[in-house]
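Quick one: structure for this chain?
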Amino acid sequence: MKISKRIISLLIAALIGTTFIGCGKKEEVPPIVETPAPETSVPETPPVVEEPIGETDPTVSAELLFTITDGLEMPSQVAMPKEMFGDTYGIDETLLESYIVNMPMMNVKANECAVFELKDEKDSQAVLEGITKRQKALEEQWKTYLPDQYELVQNYKTAVKGNKILFVIDEHAEQIVENFNQAVKE
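Got it. Here's what it folds into:
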C-alpha cells in the first residue's frame, strides 16, 4: 500500500506542477508602435442617403394607413412588394389611384392592413373581389397552422367610404375600421 500511496502522491504533484507551468507567466509581447501614415489626398465621398424600401412618396393610402393605425400596438410589418401585389390580390392596378398593403414581417403572424384609393368609386366591387380572393387564400394558409392566427383571418374587416377601401386582419380590426370611418371624408 505504501508504494501505491507514493505513486499517487507523485502523480498529483506532477499534475499540480504542470498546471502551474501551463498557467505561468506569458511571454512579453513588444508594444506596437504606430507609424504615421503618409499624407495622401482622399476625395471626399458624398454622404450615404438611405432610402426606404417600397414607394418613396407618401401616397394618400399610405398616409391614411398611418393615421388609422397610429398608436395601436401591432406586430412589425413591411409593405408588400409591387411584384407580389397582382398575384396576391388579383386587382388591376390601373383602377387604383394609390394603395398600400402592409403584411407581417415574420411568417408566424397573419396581420395584414391594406388601404386602396380608387380612381373611380364604380370600381369598388372589383377591389372587394380581390380582397375576398386574398382573404380566402390566407384562410387556406392558416387553417392548419396556428389556430389563433386562423381566427384573426376569419374575423377580417373591410370598410368602404367614398373612393377608399380598407381591408384589415388584426386584433384591433374594429378600432382600425372606426378610425378609418372617422378619418375619411366623403
